[in-house]
């Protein structure tokens, strides 16, 4: 039955495309689109819908608060003036050496920008709900505090392998020579919060009201009000890592 | 003859060592000077009528640019001196009321930066607040100029 097909195909004359009606050309193109759509369309659609969701609401970022209190910090980023009083307060409170840092101000400068050419961005440990550093630590020296969700360090367990420093998507860890362990922000847990003070040293030192610290699981707190609204944009850094950070950025 | 050669050799060695020590000492001094942020009065060019002034009180790193206000925008000296600011640079940062609060009430920069004549003082913070990073840049600029 199939023997004749080869010959029949070879003997077919090229009719050219001039005589083919537009309708038929369109039909043919549609078949191609449908076939490729089955393969690429699915993944494309999922990407698009994800982007739309991510831009429209940050709900995914703060669906549940597994800790009580669920400590969080919100930055009103446009108010930062790089006076670095926060860094100074942090150094004093937590005895951070000159070569390291627990919090830092980044600067973005664009000569071609209209009007304001500089922007400052404070960063610190994001105390992620799904922290890559904790997963990476071979000795469980860094861990997620079961009560408060703060990512803390057990300095005596740290062997100084610095794997956590590589794993951290936010580059907020440094090796402390004196402690011979990796050191990082603990939301001032050891120096202040555990002693009953309710605010971190950096948030207290900020003269411009950039850093707002509080309990994200408490609907009455300022951080809750800043994150649970759609009037102003709220975002986190590097959401694609899936770390689910607890440090949010917004504008005043 | 050999003794003379040895003498000259040791002398050259000694000289080079003291030279290296001197240079490294000099570099050390400079880096120490840069560590503690200090206010800066930096003369960009005489034609702008005044210097670039970086205040450090009450917060570090706030720039007033004569280059911008006189050179680019063309304001005459009288628009600020001596009603709003004295001629002596950095004098106003000694005043206890030299704060954003005073600016909102129309004092100091707030006389123009009120949202009508120029952008309001409670907006575009990082335009004037160049921060410790900006301050250190000006300190470096000043240091390299002084060297020349």
Automatic annotation (TrEMBL), chain A:
Domain 4Fe-4S ferredoxin-type: from-to ranges: 71-100, 116-147, 149-178
SUPFAM superfamilies cross-referenced by the UniProt entry: 4Fe-4S ferredoxins
| Domain of life from the UniProt record | Bacteria
InterPro entries on file: 4Fe4S_Fe-S-bd (IPR017896), 4Fe4S_Fe_S_CS (IPR017900), ET_IronSulfur_Cluster-Binding (IPR050954)
> Which key words are in the record?
4Fe-4S, Iron, Iron-sulfur, Metal-binding
Query: What Pfam families does the record tag this protein with?
Result: Fer4_11 (PF13247), Fer4_4 (PF12800)
Q: Name one GO molecular function term.
A: metal ion binding
Protein name stated in the entry: Twin-arginine translocation pathway signal protein
User: Which species is listed as the source?
Assistant: Caldimicrobium thiodismutans
From TrEMBL, chain B:
Q: Which residues form a coiled coil?
A: none
Q: Which CDD domains match?
A: Cytochrom_C3 (cd08168)
Top-rank taxon: Bacteria
Query: Which Gene3D superfamilies did the record assign?
Result: Cytochrome C3
Q: Where is the Cytochrome c7-like domain?
A: 62-129
Q: Name one Pfam family in it.
A: Cytochrome_C7
What is the protein name for this chain? Cytochrome c7-like domain-containing protein
Q: Which source organism does the UniProt entry give? A: Caldimicrobium thiodismutans
